[in-house]
Amino acid sequence: MRRPWRVAVVGGGIAGLAAAVRLRDGAPADTEITVYEQSGALGGKLRTGALAGQPVEFGAESFLMRDPTGAESAAVALIRRLGLAEKIVHPTVGQAALVVDGGLRPIPGGTLVGVPGDLDRVTTVARPLADADTDGGRPLIGPDADVSVGALVRSRFGDEVVERLVDPMLGGVYAGRADDLSLVTTMPALARTARVEHTLTGAVRAAQAAAPRAPGAPVFGTLVGGLSTLVEAAVTASSATIRRDAAVREVTATGSGWRLTVGPTRDPEFVDVDAVVLAVPARPAARLLAGPAPEAAAAVGKLDYASVALVTLAVPQPRLPELSGFLVPSTEGLLTKAATFFTTKWGHLRRPDGVALLRASVGRYGEEAHLQRPDADLAATVHRELSAVLGTPLPAPVDGHVQRWGGALPQYAPGHAGRVGAARAALRAAHPTVTLAGAGYDGVGIPVCVRSGETAAEEIITALGGSAR
Fold this sequence. Notes:
Blueprint lengths: L5 E5 L3 H13 L5 E5 L11 E4 L2 E4 L5 E2 L9 H8 L6 E2 L6 E5 L2 E4 L4 E2 L2 E2 L32 H9 L1 H16 L8 H4 L1 H7 L5 H11 L9 E4 L4 H11 L2 E3 L4 E6 L4 E5 L6 E5 L1 E4 L3 H8 L4 H7 L3 E13 L8 E3 L8 E6 H4 L9 E8 L12 H16 L8 E13 L4 H15 L3 E3 L2 H4 L3 H20 L4
Parallel strand pairs: 1-2, 1-16, 2-12, 7-18, 16-22
Antiparallel strand pairs: 3-4, 5-11, 6-11, 7-8, 9-10, 13-14, 14-15, 17-20, 17-21, 18-19, 19-20
Helix pairs in contact: 1-8, 1-15, 2-15, 3-4, 6-7, 9-10, 10-13
């Protein structure tokens, strides 16, 4: 008689939880799914807290509504699956700004993560090189090549476009530098068209045309009540056993599956399962794979991460521009690299008492020493810098919160996709019942992480379905 499948999901972030939901939907009904989370909190970088008496995001604040093809994103599809679609809301103010020479200038439209398809539209913030983006008679990059975003854009548009547009936009997402980040991983749509087009403006336009957006259609969404409601709903829908404060320290192959070593060294617990989804960052995954799959471990273990801090201030009746926030180029010399005016950007968060919630992101890759400052120091620095950028002193905060995310943002060096592909190929060949999921492999953002988790679960279902029971 067939016994139930036993599947371990290591990591309780949104990728792991999405994997658990897909396992519940696609595996036999009696499948035993257990999620192991080494911390006490599920959701990873999705964390809704409270400040000045109302919910506020201490991690990711929103999700993309569409995927790169223009179809509904994996995050929206999961939200519908979980019965939360009626809670989706969109920004009421979408215009953001850049800090240039100490002042605010609107971010030009028509760019792809800051890379312009029309150079005339970006002259308000940067001076592109004249006549550098010429047709050389061949595609910008080869069929299997990867380059840094900064190297490609500098060669075609010059330094100012990178430093004043592309770098702050990528830095707002990855806390890294355009010169260090992979084009294929961070801007896959542009990478695809760059393999065909002979100019960068042509590649940008082709990428934009491949994912048309209806005029007025919202780009971003979030959930009333906060993104932690997505986490809670995924836990419920998965019907998984949730193990908090349960660090998986070792994964060992057995004759019929895998043995997990869970918990403290002095009092370990051993758990036998048929399959494992590793939904943890790259370095922990590499440590777990070092024994059974050293080739895969070596490939994924090269990834580095940046740390950030999110400083949220509740400020009474400040004078704010009608902007969703702003981005700060590193050349401006500020600790703050991005700011969001929550109660301006999201209409459902506006308060009748006029208290505004402002959040600043602090920390760039390679500058982690700044994050060693005490919370009060970070908050005071952010308050001072926001006041300077806005050109008017902000009132003293009535409440504040500093959320530190150590090793939170992957730094995808060129060649990242190839390394991950090699690791997954090695696992499929030797250990098809172990899969990788999460931002460390497929990219940042809630939709990408959801799709990554779902794909990992589907591979496990296929692998177990094809084995003799």
